[in-house]
Amino acid sequence: MIGTTSAAGTDGAAVRRAHEAFTAGTAPGAPPGTPSVRPLVADSWRRSARARVSPDGAARVELDEEELAGHRDGHPLAAVMPVVRELMGAYARDGEHLLAVCDAAGRMLWVEGHPRTLRLAQGMNFVAGARWSESAAGTNAPGTAMAVDRPVQVCAAEHFRRPVQAWTCAAAPVHDPHSGRLLGAVDITGGAGLAHPHSLAFVQAVARAAESQLALVSPAPAAGGRPRLTALGRDEALLHIAGRRLRLSRRHSELLVILAQRPEGVSGEELLTLLYEDESVTPVTLRAELSRLRGLLGPELLASRPYRLTADVDADFAAVDRRLSSGAVATALGGYAGPLLPSSCAPGVVRLRERLAGRLRAALVDRGDPGLLADWAYSAWGEDDVTVWRALASAVPAAQAPAVRARLAALDAELCAGATGLQRRGAHHRP
Question: Engineering a disulfide at 36: which of 11, 90, 285, 333 sits with its beta carbon 3.0 to 4.6 angstroms away?
Fold first, then answer.
């Protein structure tokens, strides 16, 4: 975990003024403007506004006690809670802070610490079972740390929601040590005393210790096992093979995704059309890429005539597809870390990405489970998905319906405005 972001040294009054100007709409498009607002915070405010987070709203409690208990028991981070408590528990209690651990969807699984601080935190629903993803609760340390995938600190008025601006927090994401998949985040939350770079370094160290513990309690597969490919939610895929962990280039990621999907093999001519948008790319260019990939993987894995992988590859996107085929929708969503190679424009990858996302979306809508629908709607890839938001508005409990309907209305208004703009442009260019 490299590239930490600390809030120490910011001018609180200037940040508050910038926040008021931004949320009032007087500076909605550009960065909130003054040097006192860090780029990390400016970007997060814009994402929060785009996700239609209300600056005066509160986090929603989505898991009742029974649901929370079941979710905790089945979550990988349950195995590292003893380590988290050992490292953070006394510090949180003695400093009147809170330690918190959330899942990858931003739902708080554990919130523990000083009793008085726990009572105060209930006023903003910083409690177990509440969703604190950035797209649901605005700029906050655990939600933003997962949105940018690095440790961050958020102080006072840097929070997007005003009820949270009395607090300071630092959080770091926690990943599966073998696949690299985001599992959640660890967080320390309290008063102004946490506005120090040491808080960020501390929580980053706890996240690293948690990942080390995960590696101990769930060892990597034996070197002789099947190669594993992780490509969901990543622009550069990870390949685990023969005891090695390889981070692939974007082009090699695209090649392996396509070949893993086609175990029977692909001709050079077809591979050109699946890999390159530009039809002028020559077979020589493709052969050069394949030669570099063979040099990385070893000649025993990549064969030619047709191009194919000589071993079965356990790909995360294929696992999600299998779970959907068997009707295990919740398990499929749990394994879906995001769109397949989201930045790829390779035609073959784009088709696979859209097909998998479409199948999962349709299964979620058909299931109608409000928790699963919310996990998709409040994700980075689902925040503008009108189909899922409509299904969520129909399925959500009455207490949560107004906020969901408000966001759905905003999405519908954007769609109408976009359609009107297209019609006007069409009329303008009509002969």
Answer: 11
